[in-house]
C-alpha cells in the first residue's frame, strides 16, 4: 500500500549510503532530489502525515552496493551441503565437492534463511544457526584460511531444497503448477512456478 506524506520546507532531508547505521557524513539534499526508486526512511507525525526527518538512499547507490555485494560473494563466497551444525560453537561444516569446509561465525555474522515460499536470495529472512539442518544448502561469505578449508563468515544464507526428476503427469497452466511422479520416491509431487522461475527445454 502507498501513503502520501507531506515534506515541509522545515524537514531535514539527508542522503546517506546504503547500510550506514548512523547519519555521520550524511549530505543534506532537497525534496526535488528524491526520485522514484529511491529508498526513504521518514520520521512522521500528525494527520495527514508530515515528515520532520527524511533519510534517503538513492537508487543508484543501492544498485552500486548490490553489484559490489554480488562481486564480493563471487570472490569470498563458499557453498555446499551442510554436514553438521554446532550452534554452541558457532560453526557449520559444509561439504563442497570433495572438500569439507568449516564455516565459523561471530556475534556480528548475519544469518539468513530462504523464505518458505520464495527462492529469491533478496527475500531471505533473518534466522539462526540452529535452523540449519544437515542436508541444507548453505552459502557463506567471509575471509578464508590460506588452504580454503575454513571461513570466518560475515553472512550465511541457508535453505532446504529438493532436486526432483520425473515424468510430468498433469499441468495447470492457469495456476502455474504441474505434477510430477518423482523417479526416486515414486510419489506424485506438485510443483509451483512463479514469474521468477527459470524454465528451460533440454535438447533431445
What does this structure look like?
The chain contains one helix and 14 strands. It has about 200 residues and is mostly beta strands.
What is the number of strand segments? Answer: 14
Question: What is the C-alpha radius of gyration, as a whole number of Å?
Answer: 23 Å
**What is the succession of H and E elements?**
EEEEHEEEEEEEEEE
| Lateral strand order in the biggest sheet | 5-6-7-11-10
Class from helix and strand fractions: mainly beta
Share in β-strands: 35-45%
N- and C-termini, Cα separation: 47 Å
Q: What kind of sheet is the major sheet?
A: 5 strands, mixed, barrel
List unreliable stretches of 5+ residues: none
Q: Tally the helices: what do you get?
A: 1
Mean pLDDT: 92
What share of residues is helical?
under 10%
Estimate the global geometry from the Cα principal axes.
extended
Write a short abstract of this structure.
The chain has 204 residues and is mostly beta strands. It has one helix at residues 59-76; strands spanning 12-15, 27-28, 39-45, 50-57, 77-86, 91-96, 99-104, 110-113, 125-126, 137-144, 150-159, 166-172, 177-182, 188-192.
List the helices and strands and how they pair.
Blueprint: E1 12-15, E2 27-28, E3 39-45, E4 50-57, H1 59-76, E5 77-86, E6 91-96, E7 99-104, E8 110-113, E9 125-126, E10 137-144, E11 150-159, E12 166-172, E13 177-182, E14 188-192
Parallel strand pairs: 1-4, 7-11, 8-11
Antiparallel strand pairs: 1-2, 3-4, 5-6, 5-10, 6-7, 8-9, 10-11, 12-13, 13-14
Amino acid at each position: 500500500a502507498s501513503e502520501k506524506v507531506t515534506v515541509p520546507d522545515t524537514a531535514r532531508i539527508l542522503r546517506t549510503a546504503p547500510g550506514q547505521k548512523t547519519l555521520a557524513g550524511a549530505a543534506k539534499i532537497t525534496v526535488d532530489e528524491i526520485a522514484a526508486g529511491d529508498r526513504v526512511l521518514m520520521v512522521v507525525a500528525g494527520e495527514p502525515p508530515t515528515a520532520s526527518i527524511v533519510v534517503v538512499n538513492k537508487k543508484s547507490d543501492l544498485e552500486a552496493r548490490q553489484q559490489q555485494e554480488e562481486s564480493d560473494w563471487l570472490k569470498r563466497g563458499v557453498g555446499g551441503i551442510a554436514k553438521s551444525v554446532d550452534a554452541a560453537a558457532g560453526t557449520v561444516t559444509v561439504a563442497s565437492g570433495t572438500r569439507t569446509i568449516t564455516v565459523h561465525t561471530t556475534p556480528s555474522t548475519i544469518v539468513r534463511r530462504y523464505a518458505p515460499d520464495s527462492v529469491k536470495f533478496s527475500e531471505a529472512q533473518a534466522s539462526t544457526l540452529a535452523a540449519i539442518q544437515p542436508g541444507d544448502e548453505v552459502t557463506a561469505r567471509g575471509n578464508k584460511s590460506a588452504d580454503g578449508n575454513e571461513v570466518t563468515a560475515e553472512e550465511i544464507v541457508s535453505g532446504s531444497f529438493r532436486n526432483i526428476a520425473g515424468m510430468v503427469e498433469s499441468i495447470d497452466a492457469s495456476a502455474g503448477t504441474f505434477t510430477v511422479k518423482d523417479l526416486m520416491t515414486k510419489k506424485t509431487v506438485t510443483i509451483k512456478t512463479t514469474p521468477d522461475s527459470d524454465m528451460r527445454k533440454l535438447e533431445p
